[in-house]
Amino acid sequence: MTLALARKWRPKNFAELVGQEHVVRAISNALTQNRLHHAYLLTGTRGVGKTTLARIVAKALNCETGVSATPCGKCTACVEIDAGRFVDLIELDAASNTQVDNMRELLEGALYAPTSGRFKVYIIDEVHMLSRSAFNAMLKTLEEPPAHVKFILATTDPQKIPVTVLSRCLQFNLKQIPLAQIRGQLENVLGKENVTFEVPALNLIARAAEGSMRDALSLLDQAIAHGAGKVDETSVREMLGAVDRGYLFSMLNALTRGDGPALLAEADRMAARSLSFDTALQELATLLHRIALAQTVPDALADDEPERDTLVALGGAFNEEDVQLLYQIAIHGRRDLSLAPDEFAGFTMTLMRMLAFVPVEPGGKIAANPSPGRPAAYAAGTRATDPPRSMEKSSQPVADARPIEAELADWRNLVGRIKVGGMARMLGDNCEFQSLQGDNIDLVVPEAHKHLLEKAYTDKLQAALGDYFGRKLRLRISTGGSGKTPAEIENQERQAKLAKAIESIDADPFVRELVENFDARVKDTSIKPVQ
Ligand SMILES: [Zn+2]
User: Fold this and answer.
1) Is CB count within 10 Å lower at the N or C end of the chain?
2) What pLDDT score does 241 carry?
3) Closest CA to 211 of 447, 375, 47, 64
């Protein structure tokens, strides 16, 4: 492949042009009805097909088979225009002054009839770069255009074009080409070139091209070279280094493990690579949005989305509230970045906020937690070396050797083992065991939670205890207590774990200063683990 793909596969007719249907329709109609305006201005970002479109129009006007929206592509005029050597097509790039200096002279030629074609076509790219005198020269011709002259002006920056010129042009705005259309064209080109490819790799390229087909095709050129003749995801990801989001996924994974040191190490590596913290927070928010989508509307993620599997896996590792919360923290962190002592501090502060919230979220799915309904924070607490509770005991539920009083005294553990959920479970979590008298179990619930004393919840909890112990039991619940309900203990453990996380980060000298800052904020209500 010697010819660059962008040149080789440049569309030669309207049908091949990707993504500018609205402009093509308008111009095709004008051509069919032979009512073409004498001057067009095509605007749009780079690589969306402005000059390509202009050349097709030049062919449509000069094709030997007649003016139409479907030039033959075979006659001398068509072939010469495609080859860039048609005498009546004058193509200028206003960005290079050498050609534009003699604008007046060039335009004087417009007065003479075309040499071999029907029309003299002037294509002026980046027209906003013309000097004032060049614009003035052009304006004269635009004001009294000879019937055989057509102007097609193209620009990325129409604001810089004098109004006098603008007012004499019919303007069309070419849109950025949607990702799916770019990918489709890449597939099409690779199919014709007989190059094997992986679809996720094409998605990565299409996304990096940001709406420009030309950029997409030159990235594809590079990708083929880089991948030694094939286009696979790994090498494209490597090639696009700058947009590789691997480090962000490492951070999200560290969050799922509650691994503060790993998070900060990643931030440190980012600093070493001079990556933008602002962009990183933006990208993190974008990823969290994708993760939330993976959780709630999985169909919204295309099957061929390059990071689909990773997003789905993270969607399973976080619970939905965590993702919402992390998203908020990322957005706020980015907003406050300019207020931080420096960007690194602002960024790591945001990470620590995320850390402070997520791994201790009750009911979270963060760590694999074999005990159903029990938050990971329990297992990961002070007794992290114990075997998981469920493996320890749940396999032998009723035949426990301990007397019923002992089990009741270990109320928190018991609540984790009986089969109860929802509000009844919440009631259990907010009770303390007091005594067992005959078949009567006396519990207390703090004033603050007495709204849980609904008969329906009490009945469910009572039934679950009865099932567990295999005997009929009656619950008697009053208000009061000493602040040792499972929920309160859990909350204290969560606070302790938060403090421990901060401590472990604090041990790292390079963030000591930062953590002092964090400590100060930890007392702020905004940093408390949410209930
Ligand atoms: Zn032709």
Assistant:
1) C
2) 60
3) 47
